[in-house]
Write a structure and sequence with these properties.
Layout: H1 14-35, H2 50-70, H3 74-78, H4 80-97, E1 99-101, E2 104-110, E3 113-115, H5 117-133, H6 143-162, H7 166-171, H8 175-181, H9 187-204, H10 207-224, H11 232-259, H12 262-272, H13 283-294, H14 306-309, H15 321-353, H16 358-382, H17 400-424
Antiparallel strand pairs: 1-2, 2-3
Membrane topology: Multi-pass membrane protein
Keywords: Cell membrane, Cell shape, Cell wall biogenesis/degradation, Glycosyltransferase, Membrane, Peptidoglycan synthesis, Transferase, Transmembrane, Transmembrane helix
Main location: membrane
C-alpha cells in the first residue's frame, strides 16, 4: 500500500515539480541579471541585493512546501472557509495598519521584510470556491448559487481595491475559467468579453463609427434569424441590447475621465497610443519594448543586457522581469520561458481533469487560471499588448509574497493530487 502522506514518495507529480523548480531557478538567475552591476561584481549570493534576498525567499519557500506536503490532504478541505475568513480579516486590517508602498496601502512591513496579503487572498479564495462548489446540489445555472459564488469572489476584490491595488484585483477575473469548466452559462463570459472589446473600441475609434457597427451587427442578427423567431418580444429584446450597448459606449469616456485615477488613465492612454509622452507615462512600455527588441533572436548573453545594466527599465527585477529575459536571451529564450509556462499550466489542467473529487478539480482549475492570467498580463504589458497593472510573473519576479503565494497555491494542488495517485496504486 502506498504511503498517502509521504511528501517525498512517488505520489507527487514529478513533471510538475520539475517545471516548478525550472521556473524558480530561471527566475532567480534573471533577478540576478536584472540587478547585476559590472562595476560592483556582486555575487549571486550577496544578501544586500535582490538576488541574494530572493535566494532567502526560495529557502523559506522550500520549508513551506515541506509543511504543505506533510499535512493530511483533508486539512485544506476542512479549513477552506477558515482560511478565507482569516484572509478577509487580514485584508481589512491592512487598510488601517498597512504600509503605503508606491501609492498602495496593501503591505505589512516587518523591519526590512514586506508582505502583501492580497497575494495570499487568491489562494484562500480558490480554496473557498472549491469548498462551496463541492457541496452536493450546487448548480451554476441557479441564481442563488451564482450570487453566493460572486460574493466569495467580489468581497476580497473590494477590500484589495480599497487598498489601491488594482492589478491584484483584476486577477480575480481568472476564476471565470474555472467557473466555465464547472457549468457557468456561456453567455456570462461572452458578455464580459464583449464588454471588454467595446471598451477598447470606444477608446480607439470615434463613437459614431461604433454606433453604426452596433446597428449593422444587430441588423445582421435579425436578418439571419429564422422567420418564426422574429417575434415582437425577440425584436424588442434585440433593440434593448442595442440601447444598452450604445449607452455603455457613451459612458466609457466618463468612466475613464471621472472615475479612474490619474495613473490608471495614463496606463490606458499608453495602451491605446504607445507613442504618447514617451519620456513620461509611456516610458516604461517604450523602454521595455526596446529592451526586448534589442535581444533579437539569441539575445546579448547572460549579464550582457545594456538596457538592464543602465536601469532604463524601471522595476526590472519585479514587474518587468520579462524584459531581462528578452534582452539577454532573445526570442529563443523568451520562447523557452513561455513554453515552460504553457507546459506547467497544461500539466495542471490535465491533473485537474483526473481528480476523483470535485474539490480538487475545482481548485486545480483555479490554480491554472491564476497562473495563466498572471503570465498573459505580465508578458502582454511588457510588449505593449496589455495595460501596465503591476502584477508579477509567477516564480520569476523578485518578491517573497509573490513566490510564497504561487508556491503555496501550486503545492496545495500537488498535495491533493498525490492523494488521487496514492488511491490508484492501492
Amino acid at each position: 500500500m502506498a504511503r498517502n502522506n509521504d511528501p517525498f514518495s512517488q505520489n507527487i507529480d514529478w513533471l510538475t515539480l520539475l517545471l516548478y523548480f525550472g521556473c524558480v531557478t530561471m527566475g532567480w538567475l534573471n533577478v540576478y541579471a536584472a540587478v547585476y552591476s559590472p562595476e560592483d561584481h556582486t555575487s549571486l549570493f550577496d544578501m544586500t541585493t535582490n538576488a541574494g534576498k530572493q535566494m532567502m525567499w526560495i529557502g523559506t519557500t522550500v520549508i513551506l512546501i515541506i509543511c504543505i506536503l506533510v499535512v493530511n490532504h483533508t486539512f485544506f478541505d476542512t479549513f477552506a472557509f477558515v482560511f478565507y475568513g482569516f484572509m478577509i480579516l487580514v485584508l481589512i486590517l491592512v487598510l488601517f495598519a498597512g504600509s503605503n508602498i508606491n501609492g498602495s496601502r496593501s503591505w505589512f512591513k516587518f523591519g526590512s521584510v514586506s508582505i502583501q496579503p492580497a497575494e495570499f487572498a487568491k489562494v484562500a479564495t480558490a480554496l473557498a470556491l472549491a469548498k462551496y462548489l463541492d457541496v452536493p446540489g450546487i448548480n451554476l445555472t441557479k441564481q442563488k448559487d451564482l450570487m453566493f459564488i460572486g460574493g466569495i469572489i467580489v468581497l476580497p476584490c473590494i477590500l484589495i481595491l480599497a487598498s489601491n491595488e488594482t492589478g491584484s484585483t483584476l486577477v480575480f477575473a481568472s476564476f471565470v475559467i474555472m467557473l466555465y469548466r464547472e457549468g457557468l452559462p456561456s453567455w456570462i463570459p461572452a458578455v464580459g468579453i464583449a464588454a471588454a472589446a467595446l471598451f477598447v473600441l470606444a477608446l480607439v475609434f470615434p463613437k459614431l463609427y461604433i454606433f453604426i457597427g452596433i446597428v449593422a451587427l444587430l441588423g445582421l442578427i435579425i436578418l439571419l434569424m429564422p422567420r418564426y423567431n422574429r417575434t415582437l418580444a425577440n425584436l424588442l429584446s434585440i433593440g434593448l441590447i442595442g440601447i444598452v450597448m450604445v449607452g455603455y459606449v457613451t459612458g466609457v469616456d466618463f468612466f475613464v475621465n471621472n472615475v479612474l485615477q490619474k495613473h490608471q488613465r495614463n496606463r490606458i492612454k499608453v495602451l491605446v497610443d504607445p507613442k504618447i509622452d514617451p519620456l513620461g507615462v509611456g516610458w516604461n512600455v517604450t523602454q521595455a519594448k526596446i529592451a526586448i527588441g534589442s535581444g533579437r533572436l539569441q539575445g546579448k548573453g547572460f549579464l550582457e543586457g545594456t538596457q538592464t545594466k543602465f536601469d532604463f527599465v524601471p522595476e526590472q527585477s519585479t514587474d518587468f522581469i520579462f524584459c531581462t529575459i528578452g534582452e539577454e536571451h532573445g526570442f529563443v529564450g523568451a520562447t523557452v520561458v513561455i513554453a515552460l509556462f504553457i507546459g506547467l499550466i497544461s500539466r495542471i489542467v490535465i491533473l485537474a481533469e483526473k481528480q476523483r473529487t470535485k474539490f480538487a478539480r475545482v481548485y486545480g482549475y483555479c490554480v491554472a487560471g491564476i497562473i495563466f492570467f498572471h503570465v498573459m498580463v505580465n508578458v502582454g504589458m511588457t510588449i505593449g499588448l496589455m495595460p501596465v497593472i503591476g502584477i508579477p510573473l509567477p516564480f520569476f519576479s523578485y518578491g517573497g509574497s509573490s513566490l510564497w503565494s504561487f508556491s503555496i497555491l501550486l503545492f496545495i494542488f500537488l498535495k491533493l493530487d498525490s492523494r488521487r495517485t496514492a488511491f490508484m496504486r492501492r
